[in-house]
Amino acid sequence: MGLWDSLLNWLRSLFFKQEMELSLVGLQNAGKTSLVNAVATGGYSEDMIPTVGFNMRKVTKGNVTIKLWDLGGQRRFRTMWERYCRGVSAILYVVDAADRDSIPIAKSELHDLLTKQSLAGTPLLVLGNKIDKSEAVSKQALVDQLGLELIKDREVCCYMISCKDSVNIDVVIDWLIKHSRTAKRATTIKYFGVLYPKLLNKLVVIR
Fold this sequence. Notes:
By secondary structure, the chain is an alpha/beta fold. It has one domain (19-180): 3-Layer(aba) Sandwich (Rossmann fold), CATH 3.40.50.300. The chain has seven helices and six strands; from the N terminus they run αβαββαβαβαβαα. It has helices spanning 3-15, 32-41, 81-85, 103-114, 139-146, 169-195, 200-205; strands at residues 18-25, 54-61, 64-71, 90-96, 124-129, 156-160. A six-stranded mixed sheet has the order 2-3-1-4-5-6, sandwiched between helices. The chain is globular and about 60 Å long. This is ADP-ribosylation factor-like protein 8B. GTP binds at residues 26-33, 73, 129-132. Pfam families: Arf. Keywords: Cell cycle, Cell division, Chromosome partition, Endosome, GTP-binding, Lysosome, Magnesium, Metal-binding, Mitosis, Nucleotide-binding.
């Protein structure tokens, strides 16, 4: 096997061993820990204890390993959000779509977080949870009330979900896997270009 074949096999192995790191933030009782459980096991519990501080959990989906930081949403923990969002593949912002009074606070906290220079450009996935409840707002109403269309400095996506009924959890997982591949490909090409700059142009053509 020649050098070129060896390099291509090495690159393929990198693409098939993907990892990503995510931070889940949002106000208390939004359903962040329920989302972690739904993604990991498909399970749901009514008696979920609010996260105090933070929890970390690794979830494997296919060939993607996802490291999830589940951050407490109480006021005293919100100053921690920026620290645990630095360098992640994406920020997941969970909102209780059925608690209409909390949405303005969720908007304020979200936009305050996104002003942090250390988080510039980090993709944002907003999840309106608890759509199984009749009082939940619509997707367009949530987008409007959170001011998501005002965010221009990064990719923003919004899905409406129900951790209780497993609605759109598969869509969330697909989004995460897609972004793990995008981040991995960019990192691999950057690293490969440092080691083998003369071959980089040939590599980029083979996609």
